[in-house]
Task: structure prediction
Amino acid sequence: MGTEDEDGFSEDREGPVREVCVDAFAIDAHAVTNARFAEFVDATGYRTEAEKFGWTYVFARFVPGELRKTSPRPQQTPWWCGVSGAYWRAPEGPGSSVEQRWDHPAVHVSWHDAVAYCRWAGRRLPTEVEWEYAARGGLDQARYPWGDELIPGGEHRCNIWQGKFPVRNTEEDGYAGTAPVDAFEPNGFGLYNVSGNVWEWCADWFDPARSGRSMRGGSYLCHDSYCNRYRVAARTANTPDSSSGNLGFRTAADVSPR
Ligand SMILES: [Ca+2]
Ligand SMILES: [Ca+2]
Result:
């Protein structure tokens, strides 16, 4: 796992390339959908952290005009709006819904929310080692789940950003926001959208000295000019109570070795 690719971020400790042993495990073919997350919420009455805090981060271009003007934006990343009343079932704030997006990944889910879902489902979050092993789909040191070329033969293989980030998205891959969890071809192990679509929480701390949990795979907002972390070796982190419109998860489980 890992990479020493010049496109990588050494400060993220993507490298060195190293051999890691991993026990047998199962992992979802795709991210947890809105439909499945709704089953969890309906069964348990669970309230996500975005609901408890009263807001979450939505990509500014998706926020309706008036709300966009009044929603605070972080100085360093002004393409995000902190939108009051946004949560997984109203991903762009009051009035929005997932009615047309039941098969899209559940978003605005914090690490704590994801762990609560896993507990209900009898699953757990994958470790980073498991995630990367699965994401590679059997390829050795390839940059993406399908190989080294981002758009092989002109065919888009994942949902990221085309155009000029963050002002113009040409949507050449077919999606401005989330795509259905099983859009695009799966990798060699049958996993969909490990690269792009939504970031995925992992079980690990990003760095033992800091308080972030690891996220892998990049999202529909990733563009080479800003963040090429849709590579399989790439990693980033967020605090475990954070949520946003491009962050979801898939689950894993132990299996007994044969
Ligand atoms: Ca896209
Ligand atoms: Ca992903």
Notes: Residues 40 and 121 are 8 Å apart (CA to CA). Residues 193-194, 196-198, 200, 217 surround calcium ion (ligand 2) (CB under 6 Å).
